[in-house]
Amino acid sequence: xxxxxxxxxxxxxxxxxxxxxxxxxxxxxxxxxxxxxxxxxxxxxxxxxxxxxxxxxxxxxxxxxxxxxxxxxxxxxxxxxxxxxxxxxxxxxxxxxxxxxxxxxxxxxxxxxxxxxxxxxxxxxxxxxxxxxxxxxxxxxxxxxxxxxxxxxxxxxxxxxxxxxxxxxxxxxxxxx
Length: 177
Hints:
2 domains, mainly alpha
């Protein structure tokens, strides 16, 4: 029962379309009708930079907090991965916008910060390096997402000398679109 409760909570927290809401309320713009047509923070940033930063922080938070808190509340380590996956899925397939959400990158960053902040920091380093070289957020995001495959094996092994199989499976199954 705790798995179902955690899954529902994580999904609905992840499904809150903060960037769309901020754009609609503070600028009167439905961000799905401009730029990339995506209801996420990057597209909101194109419309209004300060709101885009707020949207980004909220999207990161909706991945971070359920992933960090639900496993503690239910005292179940495996809920870490369920909460993370459902928060990301909630962002990508939000019930509030007809199951058409954002790409899930910021929410995945928040979830990964809660799962293993060292992997998140290393992937962010990849993102920054690629962005600095090529000046494309999307390319940096793709390269960071792909680096998670290697980092999910390498970093826990370097940290403890062991492989963390639930972490590896989670990282390798992270949605990427």
